[in-house]
Amino acid sequence: MKPYFSFQWHITDECDQRCKHCYIYSSGEHTCLFSMNWKQMEDTFYNCLDFCEVYGRTPYFYITGGDPILHPDFWRLLQLMKDHDIKFTILGNPFHLNDQVCRELKWYGCEKYQLSIDGLRETHDWFRKTGSYDCTLEKIGCINRAGIRSVIMTTVSKTNRMEVPGIIDAVVAAGANVFAFARYVPSGGDLDASMTATEYRELLAACDKKFKEYKAEGCETYFNKKDHLWILYEYEIGDFKIPENVDPNMIYGGCNCANCHMTILPTGDIYACRRVADSKVGNVFEDRIADLWETSFEDYREYDKLEKCSKCKLKAWCRGCPAVACGTNGSFYSDDPQCWADVNSDLFVS
User: Fold this and answer.
1) Tens digit of pLDDT for each residue in 203-213?
2) Phi and psi (nearest 5°) for 201?
3) How far apart are CA 277 and CA 68, in angstroms?
């Protein structure tokens, strides 16, 4: 089996929420909403398949927006996916889901449907839309009944970090198949994102304790430790050990940016990572993606430029989040502001 390559494909900016931490709306500068037309979608799809053919990868698509279901050719795109026997995940809103819609998504090949919960009811609805919290928890059942894996993602900031344990309880009670969280990337707006490194480590410790308690109880929710700083935490508590005989020139995990992942926007712009605001590497309507991979994408694979991580023994598995580093400090290779590792510890080589 060829290794997978994931495309986070934003087919439209159209959305029936205006989330305070959304990349599209939070800066207050986005005045025009874009959507690909059908020909552009077809061309993008085949450009992605061409890339995977050249580099021996199996394509996997994360179809999103905005809310992708609002695109007039959404279902036509799913038929194209089915015609090529390609499975996919949808990242969207809950408002247009019901049992029939979810059954149709499953028929077309949808494996996972990701929804967001960004706080308990009051906080989540402040971030997103009044009534969104209850609607999201309700639609987990629709997704599950169709045989699609329900995924709940939380964007964590200083504003909501104390509510994350409560969110875990809520999504477990609602029967979510997967729960994960990622950190907010500063992108404008009025969201306070200034967690300290100590505060973030305390959050990981609290969540780890809760995850292990649920696992001991036989809980079926899978807790995806998505943030790469989990590696640092698990190294410290002994749950992760550096393997023996590793190749010092290999990258075994950590950030997928320009490694096995890219983002395509409705404008056709290709980003090494959607969360890195200035990481445009080309345009899918103008460039062959395969030609960009060993040229402009290389700017995001120079791991020895990482100011802190390049000297850390966990570099091949962690590297924190360059998007958070860039959003905070303006440089992709700057220090992750929530990394608490002491550069004077035995983790770092001189």
Assistant:
1) 999 999 999 99
2) -65, -40
3) 21
What distance in Å separates the CA atoms of residue 165 and residue 206, rounded to the nearest whole number? Answer: 7
Q: What are the strands, taking DSSP E only, across the chain?
A: 4-10, 58-64, 88-91, 110-116, 149-156, 178-183, 222-223, 261-264, 269-271, 280-283
Collapsing DSSP to helix, strand or coil, 236 comes out as helix
- Cβ atoms within 10 Å, residue 190: 8
Q: Mean pLDDT, to the nearest integer, of 297-314?
A: 95
Contact 36, 9 (CB under 8 A): no
Of 145, 152, 157, nearest in space to 170 by CA = 152
Cα separation, 214 vs 153, in Å, equals 18
- The CATH code that applies to domain 101-226 is 3.80.30.10
CA–CA gap between residue 133 and residue 228 (Å, rounded):
27
Q: Which of 88-97, 192-201, 325-334 has the lowest mean pLDDT?
A: 192-201
Q: Give the bridge partners for 88, in sequence order.
A: 61, 110
Q: How far is CA 97 from CA 35, 140, 221, 239, 295, in A?
A: 21, 10, 21, 39, 41
- Domain coordinates of the chain in residue numbers? 1-92+260-300, 101-226
Q: Which residues contact 235 (CB under 8 A, 6 or more apart)?
A: 241, 242, 314, 347
Q: Which pLDDT value is given to residue 33?
A: 82
Token couple for 287: 């460039």
pLDDT tens, position by position, 13-38: 987 766 555 555 544 445 568 999 99
Q: Are 23 and 78 a contacting pair, CB within 8 Å?
A: no
Which tokens belong to 118? 């960004």
The SS3 assignment for 35 reads strand
- The label of the residue with tokens 């089915």 reads 82
To the question of domain 1-92+260-300 being in CATH 3.30.413.10, the answer is: no
C-alpha 154/C-alpha 170 separation (Å) is: 12
